Amino acid sequence: MPFRISRISRLKIIVCLFGAVQLFGCAATQQTAAPEQSDEQAAAELAALFDDFSGEPAAAPAKTKTEKSPAVLDETIDPLDQIEAISPQSLRLPSQAMANVQVYDWRVINGAMVGNMFTGRAQHNFMRPVALAVQSEYLYVVDAGSDSLYRFDLASERLETLLDLKAEVKGEVADIYVDKDFSFYLTDTEGGRVLHYDRNGRLIQIFRDHFNMVRPVAITVQDGGDVIIADGHYDHLLHFNSMGKLVATYGGRGLGVAEFLNITAMAKGPDGYYVAGRVGRRVQVLSRNGEYSYAFEEGAVVFPAAIVVDDNNRSYVVDYMDNTIKVFDRGALVGSIGGFGVATGRFKRITDLWLDGNILYVIDGLNGRVQAARLSPEPISMPRSIPVGKPEMVQEAAPPVAAEKTVKPEPETPPSQE
Questions:
Q1: What domain range includes position 286?
Q2: Residues 6+ apart with CB under 8 A from 194
């Protein structure tokens, strides 16, 4: 019996053939419209797509004319590793050059007698000092506990209240700078401005920039009167001229060179501006025109809270985490001072430093005092930490140090023994 197809079946076959012809035509049209692509390029794109999800680096595809320049950072490598590779290295001293700074004559200033024979005299103590500055024989102390700015005469030990800060600033003052004419600058940190007062405490100038300064945390003044302010919100330095006009900004927010995350302190020194932040490179040095110079030794400071620099390019950086002052020689750690405690030379919450010649002043906030010490002009080989307890102990430890110094006689004529 011959095989026969019903009429309905024949119609179904015709419909299927017609649909197949339509699909084949659409595929041919799309293939014609798509750009030509080699199998190698297609494999590379597929591998890159999977790499985005897996986090594993894919095999490098063949170079094409549109490939990025080699100077662009490779996205498959950790950004911090790339920054470390392309940036100048932190300056380090050889291990045999490790030395510490010798400290003499600790002085504790926790307040003074106030009043006179008519009004009566009474002891007035600091409550919670947070910032300080020194000019000539005067010590200026910002006390957040009493919301006052005090001026202390280092010679006569007379204390006077210079400003009632409740009426001047919105929040807590983060930094103070006293110029050679005894005018002084205060950061109104919460108010987003810096206030300039004359020597008698009269407001004479306000530094403000709504677009570039939100949270000023540190101030320094150049010899010509220009003011440099560190902003902890935008993480850059603002350069104002003496008339209060913003002329330049240096640095910026980020993890690269000349970039910062959460600036906490800033000071000027022989190499420019020394800027400390909580994240990334803890301390970096920018030249006077804002270019990156070098970074301090990595890992030496956990939480830098204040910094001062002497004329020999030795830096003193407060580590808020362990209540020590780390000493650096052009970026290389050479020693430390202090530690947690209540004895002389020990600290609880250091928030500010000031260096006047070879006298280092330290805010010892939770102990309610300022401590000052005379530093040796040259580094002396010592253990990594300096034990402290009473003011004369450092001088008691001097004989062993002197014995070490006799190994290398001075090339010049020895000092007089008078």
A1: 95-403
A2: 185, 186, 187, 188, 206, 207, 208, 216, 219, 227, 229
How many CB atoms are closer than 10 A to CB 275?
27
The pLDDT tens digits of the residues spanning 153-193 come to 999 999 999 999 999 999 999 999 999 999 999 999 999 99
Report the alpha-carbon distance of residue 47 to residue 44 in Å, rounded: 5
Helices (H) and strands (E) in the chain, counts: 5, 26
CATH number, residue 236 = 2.120.10.30
Identify whether the C-beta of residue 371 lies closer than 8 Å to the C-beta of residue 106. Answer: yes
Burial of 412 (0-12, 13-18, 19+ CB in 10 A): exposed
Burial class from Cβ neighbours inside 10 Å (0-12, 13-18, 19+) for residue 202 reads: exposed
pTM to 2 decimal places: 0.69
Is residue 40 a part of any domain in this protein? no
Give the closest residue to 133 by CA, choosing from 284, 354, 304, 307.
354
Strand partners, 124: 112
In a domain, 28, yes or no: no
Digit-coded pLDDT (tens) for 287-297? 999 999 999 99
Does 18 map to a domain? no
Query: Is residue 85 one of the residues assigned to a domain?
Result: no
Domains held by the chain: number: 1
